[in-house]
Amino acid sequence: MTTALRKICGSNGTICLECTPEGRVGRSLYGRIGMTRNRKKVVAIGKNYEAHAREMGALHAPKEPVLFLKPTASYVGEGGSILLPPGIGSVHHEVELGIVIGKTGYDIEESKWRDHVAGYVLAIDMTARELQATAKKGGLPWTRGKCYDTFLPISDVIPSSKVPDPQNLNIWLKVDGVERQRCNTSEMVHKIPFLISHISRIMTLEEGDVIITGTPEGVGPVEPGNVVTAGIDGLVEMKFPVAARVYGKL
Predict the structure, then answer these.
(1) What is the pTM of this model?
(2) Which residue in 10, 12, 85, 160 has its CB near the most CB atoms, within 10 A?
(3) What is the DSSP string of 160-224?
(4) Are 118 and 100 in contact (CB under 8 A)?
(5) Which CATH superfamily is domain 40-244 in?
(6) pLDDT digits 0-9 by tens, 114-152
(7) Coil, helix or strand at residue 76
(8) Helix H segments across the chain?
(9) From residue 167, how far is each of 33, 158, 185 by CA, in Å?
């Protein structure tokens, strides 16, 4: 299994991959708009915590994972800002544990999931809630509600060697110092081994891909001028200011 570390380089928010000799070195995978070429897909999971499913109006979390994709343009590293486009209604924070794929695979057996994981990230799936709700009512994809630039703030990568049990992590999010979300990843409905196996039977998971595993209850709106802080206890903490987006400027 490739052991991988990533760091955010400079002030441009680029996240680079640093591997042992088993892997490739220095390949830039993610970053803000126009900063990198080799960005990979984000597979997101909806309603993977019972309490969040209920706060979104469902009776229970779905029996099969709800999958959607976020574009690489959504990535923003610490040092950047969450930019809110005008005229899209309220934008909510959704803090999530992310899995970084370190080895390409398809039809992955649940028992082999660790062989394909390089590490973990903390991510915030920013969501234009009214746009998402309108799409749901019309039976349409959630693209407009999920895919704006900077709608995936993301942490440095935590090597898998530092996370012996990713299903026992405390994740949290605060807005202006007030805690809004906190949970333990043991509360996930669909666990990490199953998610990796399930997704890999639909699409090939490639080195550098990220799976964000769903958010707990407590989602809520942010506004320009807010500061969003999120963390995994004992492992990582990140901070992002929220600003209004001016079209023509990123």
Answers:
(1) 0.84
(2) 160
(3) GGG-S-TTS-EEEEEETTEEEEEEEGGGBSS-HHHHHHHHHTTS-B-TT-EEE----S--EEE-T
(4) yes
(5) Fumarylacetoacetase-like, C-terminal domain (3.90.850.10)
(6) 999 999 999 999 999 999 999 988 999 999 999 999 999
(7) strand
(8) 50-55, 129-137, 143-146, 192-200
(9) 32, 14, 5
